[in-house]
Amino acid sequence: MVRLASGVALGVVSVAAILFLPVLALRVVACVVAARAAYEYLGLVKTPVRAIVLAVALCWVSSGPELPSGEVLLTMALLWVVAETLLSNHTLQEATTGVFGAVYVGMPLGLLVAIHALHGWPATLLLLGTIVVSDSAQLYSGRLFGRRRLAPSISPHKTVEGAVGGVICATGFILLAGPTALPSAGFGSLLVLGLLVVVAGICGDLFESRLKRAAGVKDSSSLIPGHGGVLDRIDALLFAAAPFYLFVRHFS
Q: What per-residue string of b and e applies to 6-15 under the rule 16 or more CB within 10 Å gives b?
């Protein structure tokens, strides 16, 4: 009951923010979420939390009207690594792990706001809805039909049948809802988009599960009753945001 109540509350708040907040306010909200998610990631990998600053910076610049060039992003990352290793006396591994976490968390959340700026709330809700449908379909398909483990060493409860159910249901959702949110996209392109988003989301879920297993914890934190941490709630979204953004940026 606690899980259901907190899930509904999170959904209502998220949808209300997407529908009613201006883009500038959404950028601020995304940066706050990025800071918390980066804090949880850095705790899992036992890396200094100063990389939160870089995660917020990447979230902010990625949510702007133009995505920074690769040269700019690479320069930001290299400067951070240099500062961490020379000025803070951290190892190269600690510095690069922190940079990866900033990119892993900060950029996708920024791209989510950029999607909103490009195509409005319908496209943003299409992405979030696809992830929710995929997660739900994986859960119930796995319970009903699950026999073969998808990645037993990483997430023993995930099954191949559950993943297939998620791909079918979520891709079907994007085919049905996509023409409304992205009217210029055809059936074939929406089909490809759906497959990319769902498979990327599954990979994102497994990636975070691998981080938690390596850290020996069940959840990234206990912030959200019944759901764990912020990172636990957005793990699939972090991998799915980039292909969706590239699609709406270049093909719709």
A: ebeeeeeebe
Residue 221: is it exposed, middle or buried by C-beta count within 10 angstroms (0-12/13-18/19+)? middle
Cα gap 62→113, rounded to integer Å? 8
pLDDT at 1: 66
Structural domain spans, the chain: 2-250
**What is the residue-wise DSSP string for 182-196?**
STT--HHHHHHHHHH
% of the chain residues with pLDDT over 70: 98
Radius of gyration over alpha carbons of the chain, in Å? Answer: 18
Half-sphere exposure of 206 (CA within 13 A, CB side): 19
For residue 224, which phi and psi values (nearest 5 degrees)? -105, 115
Per-residue pLDDT of 58-93, as tens digits, reads 999 999 877 777 778 888 888 888 888 887 777 888
Cα dihedral: 192, 198, 204, 210 (round 10)? -120
Residues of the chain below pLDDT 70? 1-2, 4, 252
pTM: 0.93
